[in-house]
């Protein structure tokens, strides 16, 4: 009996301990659940920028500036945080309001050197600067960070793929306040060092923009490497600032249009093509013609810009004088079909696609049927009529003459860079021979004479000489009762062993030599050291024409 009582006692005692242990386990579990429910994570992500757009020498065109962003976790040292940050923020009241809320937040600061507990400073890239470099090529992004125009849009995915960010994760309580004593986790992803490499040369682009800013109110400038068609500079005026797109949207001058890629009436620059066609057809450079100031074509008079005429000229002198009657005469002798053939060989009337969404206008050429009318053929021979070209096309034509007869294909994008090496190359096309070396050399000499003693004298550089052709192209438009013309200067630099084709187009200009010539000279002078000539002091350049 006693033995049974003892066994029963131990059974009850064991049951008691089991129940007590269960209660204790449940109690601890409930506390653990409450702790888990009361703690969590709070993550803040700071975008440090998207991929970079580089010039040909891997010099950045965007992401030039740095902005500092402080990630703040308010804590028991809030007063210390306010003291440390107050002198580095734009609005102290915003800082204090956010700290009072107690939640981790971000705020822009002016220094990376802020040493206080609960504050982490992150470097982010400033996409655009006050001095916008090649804005019509680069384009701009919207408030969401997506490309809207230019390279920003065409290579949006690539530039986003090379975006960088910093993520900081805090352990927080139920009110999302950072727990004191718990070190946050910081994760850095991506790098903005990768991106797109252009053919643009930043220094040449800046020189072209400086010349345009000084002299050009509305128009464009192209600088091209005559050997391969690489676009080294591209300017369109008026420019826009990617920092203030809204202001540009309200401008009436169409600042978003890239005029270097748009088609315009050409005028006498077309005499480059006419000279080549005439020489190819067998007309000699020594062909003589006496300009009396007017030529009759099927009962219609075509006047020279020099009303009294130039007198007796050969092709070289007529080119330097930009004599319309001479070129009408040799144009008609050459024949419209030959003029069209050479025009097409030079790429006139043909669009260039640089990248998805980035292309030139094709321009236009008259048809053979249109040119059956002698007056239309006469107009065409001096670059008027149904002839529209882009500055890029003109730069290619000039390049072909300057390099001995090889027409380059224009190129704007070199490839994709991953921050260490080129991972994708977009090689340029092999230039096509479009005229003989002999003809190219003859026309090249015409262009040099034009700068030395003809209508292109205002374009003559300080060192190295140059060759070029002027134009004052009639548009057929009127503004306030006055005819609107476009002034051109298209040439190469230097005269011997040329390296660059430079094309300047001034909308609503008066004369190619006086309007566009000084811009050519300014840019050529800036390029002088790259060709072995002394640097030119540009500070004493003549008064602005803008």
Automatic annotation (TrEMBL):
Domain named Penicillin-binding protein transpeptidase: residues: 219-523
GO CC term, one of those recorded: plasma membrane
Enzyme Commission number, as recorded: 3.5.2.6
UniProt-listed PANTHER family: BETA-LACTAMASE YBXI-RELATED, PEPTIDOGLYCAN D,D-TRANSPEPTIDASE
Alphabetical GO biological process terms: cell wall organization; response to antibiotic
Protein family membership: Belongs to the class-D beta-lactamase family.
GO molecular function: beta-lactamase activity; glycosyltransferase activity; penicillin binding
Reactions listed under catalytic activity: a beta-lactam + H2O = a substituted beta-amino acid
Positions in coiled-coil regions: none
Protein's name according to its UniProt entry: beta-lactamase
Key words of the record: Antibiotic resistance, Glycosyltransferase, Hydrolase, Signal, Transferase
SUPFAM superfamilies: beta-lactamase/transpeptidase-like, Penicillin binding protein dimerisation domain
Cited InterPro entries: Beta-lactam/transpept, Beta-lactam/transpept-like, PBP_dimer_sf, PCN-bd_Tpept
């Amino acid at each position: 009996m006693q033995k049974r009582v003892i066994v029963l006692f131990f059974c009850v005692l064991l049951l008691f301990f089991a129940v007590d242990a269960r209660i204790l386990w449940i109690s601890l579990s409930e506390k653990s659940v409450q702790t888990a429910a009361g703690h969590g994570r709070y993550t803040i992500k700071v975008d440090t920028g998207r991929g970079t757009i580089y010039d040909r020498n891997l010099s950045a065109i965007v992401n030039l500036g740095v902005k500092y962003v402080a990630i703040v976790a308010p804590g028991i040292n809030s007063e210390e945080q306010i003291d440390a940050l107050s002198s580095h923020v734009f609005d102290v009241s915003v800082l204090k309001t956010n700290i009072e809320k107690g939640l981790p937040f971000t705020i822009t600061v002016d220094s990376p050197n802020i040493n206080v507990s609960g504050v982490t400073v992150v470097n982010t890239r400033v996409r655009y600067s006050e001095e916008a470099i090649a804005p019509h090529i680069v384009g701009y992004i919207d408030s969401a960070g997506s490309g809207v125009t230019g390279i920003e849009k065409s290579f949006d995915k690539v530039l986003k793929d090379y975006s960088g960010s910093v993520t900081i994760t805090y352990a927080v309580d139920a009110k999302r306040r950072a727990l004191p004593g718990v070190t946050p986790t910081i994760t850095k992803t991506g790098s903005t060092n990768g991106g797109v490499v252009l053919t643009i040369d930043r220094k040449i682009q800046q020189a072209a923009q400086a010349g345009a800013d000084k002299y050009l109110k509305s128009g464009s400038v192209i600088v091209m490497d005559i050997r391969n068609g690489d676009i080294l500079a591209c300017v369109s005026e008026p420019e826009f600032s990617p920092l203030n797109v809204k202001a540009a949207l309200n401008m009436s001058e169409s600042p978003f249009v890239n005029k270097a890629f748009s088609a315009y009436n050409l005028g006498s620059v077309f005499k480059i093509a006419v000279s080549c066609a005439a020489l190819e057809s067998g007309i000699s450079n020594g062909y003589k013609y006496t300009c009396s100031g007017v030529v009759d074509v099927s009962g219609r008079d075509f006047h020279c810009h020099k009303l009294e005429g130039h007198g007796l000229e050969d092709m070289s002198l007529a080119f330097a004088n930009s004599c319309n009657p001479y070129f009408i005469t040799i144009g008609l002798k050459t024949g419209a079909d030959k003029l069209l053939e050479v025009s097409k060989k030079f790429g006139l009337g043909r669009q260039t696609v640089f990248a998805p969404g980035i292309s030139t206008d094709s321009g236009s050429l008259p048809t053979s049927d249109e040119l059956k009318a002698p007056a239309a053929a006469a107009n065409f021979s001096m670059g008027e009529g149904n002839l529209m070209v882009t500055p890029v096309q003109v730069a290619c034509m000039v390049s072909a003459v300057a390099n001995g007869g090889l027409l380059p294909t224009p190129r704007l994008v070199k490839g994709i860079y991953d921050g260490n090496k080129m991972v994708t190359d977009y090689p340029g096309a092999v230039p096509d021979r479009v005229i003989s070396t002999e003809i190219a050399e003859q026309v090249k000499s015409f262009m040099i004479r034009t700068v030395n003693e003809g209508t292109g004298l205002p374009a003559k550089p300080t060192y190295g000489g140059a060759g070029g052709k002027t134009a004052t192209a009639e548009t057929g438009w009127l503004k306030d009762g006055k005819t609107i013309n476009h002034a051109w200067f298209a040439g190469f630099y230097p005269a011997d062993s040329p390296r660059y084709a430079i094309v300047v187009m001034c909308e609503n200009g008066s004369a190619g030599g006086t309007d566009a010539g000084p811009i050519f000279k300014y840019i050529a002078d800036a390029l002088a050291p790259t060709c072995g000539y002394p640097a030119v002091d540009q500070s004493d350049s003549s008064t602005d024409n803008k």
